[in-house]
Amino acid sequence: MSDQESDSGKLALDKLNRALRTLSAASASIIHGVAEEPMVEDVCRILVEIGGYRLAWVGLADDRDSSLLLQAGQHFRGRRSREQVRTDVRIDGWGSACELISRAVRLGRFVVLRRGGEDRWSQACSRLPRDADYGSALALPLKHGALTLGALALYATGVEAFDEDEIQLLSDLVGNLSHGIVALRDARRRSAAELALGQEQQFLQAVIDGVADPTLVISVDYDILLMNNAARQERAGGAPPRPGAKCHEVLSGCDGPCGEEGKICPLREVQRTGKAARVEHRQVGMDGRVRIFELQASPLWQADGSLRGIIQTARDITERLRVEETLRENQNRLDYLAHHDPLTNLPNRLRFNTRLQHAMGRARETRRQVALLFLDLDRFKNINDSLGHELGDQVLREVAGRLRTCLRASDTVARLGGDEFVVILEGIEDLNAVALVARNILRNLSRPFQVGPHDLYVTSSIGISLFPGDAQSVEGLMKHADVAMYRAKEEGRNNYQFYRPDMHVRTPEMLIMESNLRRAMSENQLQLYYQPQYDLASRQLIGLEALVRWKHPVHGMISPADFIPLAEDTGLIVPLGQWVMKTACAQAKAWQEQGYAPVRVAVNISAREFRQLDFIDHLDAILSETGLDPHWLELEITESIAMQNFDETIMTLTDLKIRGVHLAIDDFGTGYCSLGYLKRFPISKLKIDQSFVRDINRDSNDAAIATSIIALGRSMHMEVIAEGVEREDQAQLLLAKGCHQAQGFLFSPAVPAEQVVSFFSRAQEKTRGARVIPLPRISAP
Ligand SMILES: Nc1nc2c(ncn2[C@@H]2O[C@@H]3COP(=O)(O)O[C@H]4[C@@H](O)[C@H](n5cnc6c(=O)[nH]c(N)nc65)O[C@@H]4COP(=O)(O)O[C@H]3[C@H]2O)c(=O)[nH]1
Description:
Elements: H1 3-32, H2 36-49, E1 55-62, E2 67-70, E3 74-76, E4 79-81, E5 85-90, H3 99-107, E6 111-114, H4 121-124, E7 136-144, E8 147-156, H5 164-209, E9 215-219, E10 224-227, H6 229-236, H7 247-252, H8 266-273, E11 277-284, E12 290-301, E13 307-316, H9 318-339, H10 349-366, E14 369-377, H11 380-387, H12 389-405, E15 412-417, E16 420-428, H13 431-446, E17 449-451, E18 454-456, E19 460-467, H14 474-490, E20 496-498, H15 508-522, E21 526-535, E22 541-552, E23 556-558, H16 560-570, H17 573-593, E24 600-604, H18 607-610, H19 615-626, E25 633-638, H20 639-643, H21 646-659, E26 662-668, H22 675-678, E27 685-688, H23 690-694, H24 700-715, E28 719-722, H25 728-737, E29 741-742, E30 751-752, H26 753-766
Parallel strand pairs: 19-20, 22-24, 24-25, 25-26, 26-27, 27-28, 28-29
Antiparallel strand pairs: 1-2, 1-3, 1-8, 2-5, 3-4, 6-7, 7-8, 9-10, 9-13, 11-12, 12-13, 14-16, 14-19, 15-16, 17-18, 21-22, 21-29, 21-30, 22-23
Helix pairs in contact: 1-2, 1-5, 2-5, 11-12, 15-16, 17-19
The structure holds ligand C2E.
């Protein structure tokens, strides 16, 4: 081998070694590269410093507009340029500066140019430093699959640089560099996507954190995808859920999805129905308190229509449920009070009426009979009068208890008021069964009642009417059972009677009483007493109630409670009522003419009187005859009068109102006045029945009813007066509850007209100074 040959072999070996070192260093740089620009720059540096090229640069295509950005590192031997040339050289055009690279990119293969051998050489070198000694240049396209990323340009001193082997090695290097660039770009895109995802996540988190109710986004696998701040506070003390946490673990502390113990899984509900779902869950909070949550789950659909999961909001409804429960209890309690007798807890008249209606309906279907037993305690008034109402009440409670024991659970026993009870027996085929029950009741009630220190003997009388035989309506059955009950009393009490039509024929006793009453009216045995009514706060006289008295020459004073019902039955109530009205009006006018300050006089009107077609005509005649201004007359009707024949009643009441007559509802609370009707009546006053006043300080039911009546009166702009006020504590409590008027023994019983002037005098004293009223003391008629 000649020296020349040996030198050229050594040179070739050096060249190969250098090329391999270059490839190895460039590969290491590519593998460890973390960012595209420094990596490309480093590869250029290696090509110059290790590879021995005069210059290396990379031009990268901008895939946005197919222009070429010469943005990566240029390297010159001995110095380094950080310049980035951004040029608008089109890949398919030929610009001055990037000739070489543009061409390699456009052709998609390497391009070699040599000084003198190629007419474009000067253009390819036009942007290079002028002092450089270039002999040849090579451009290799950076390709990744079908995509051309740009090209690497190398400049060397010799004209014959870049032989085939070298180009091959450099092609491998460029291939690695392309991979490196693509890998870094992918990584950059990935991290940008991850960043965007993170920001999106943060945005969503901020959105649901803004929701006040605990809110979760749950996947179909029960994973918690999002949980808002309120939910974290509620379930995890503010901590975020651990990754992969399941909703049932966090919300209920359960291993498996909800479904047991009546807890419906909201996710499954949404999956089952494909719609939003609402369920209630009982959960123990972080503080150990049991709370009820209303969970509202809305489906979270994906673009392909499949269910991604649910958005679940929870609302603590513990307090709302508690309030609802209290309201329900209050409503039940009010319903109960409206349908039950507070003293005995038996159904009251209202409930009894409904039950009887239903029983009649069932009897029509089953073709069986209904028996109505009307029961009245014999001489119960004596117990009340001699031992007091409290013991009387105890007896009534005990009677209620005993009645219940005599009946089947399906039978009804109710208290109508006072000492009157009714029993409904259904499914009757044989009247003997009814008689058996009646006998059983009589036997049970005739056993002594142990009340306080007393052994009381109470008997009762029972009248029985049958549906459908005796009557087809509640009123008819009641009326006939009542007639039969009176017959039982006449038969010596403590017995029962089935109704018979001939019972309407008056008994000799009744006929005697009737003729006595007629005589009483013609012989002036009747007298009007007046009970004063007072303003509770000022204790000023505001009215007088006229109450009739019968002074029998032999039997003495007979209570109106005993003869008014008879007068109603016989029709005598009509002339009696006219006498009362005329006397009361004349008396009121007389007092006014005597110079006493006028007060309103109240007169009781019974149902039969009120229903007389000429009732208003008679009233007009009395008013014109006596000259009393109708404003000073008040008519008291009972709830039951008001509730019968609504249309007629409202016409009569309106006629009265037009005349200026005041209207009051007596014994309010004992009947079943519909509020709907009440508000349509032109009534100005409600009288709280004395049965609610008696124990108003002791019995919470009485107090509740009195309070309701006062509130009702106030809401309907009516006056409210309490009757039967016997003690100062009752008066004080009524005043405190907002009832401003009262009458009762606390102030005075009903007294004859002559004594009434003493009330006027006292009223006069109280108002002295305010108003001077002349008092020509003329004696009362
Ligand atoms: N325990 C107690 N009782 C008190 C007290 N203050 C007043 N009373 C009594 O309570 C009754 C109130 O009259 P009422 O509810 O209209 O009840 C009256 C009314 O429904 C009827 N009545 C009386 N006079 C007439 C009348 O002229 N016409 C009509 N249709 N009915 C009348 O007879 C019922 C009974 O009348 P009276 O025996 O006079 O009984 C009166 C009165 O004396 C009190 O503090 N304690």
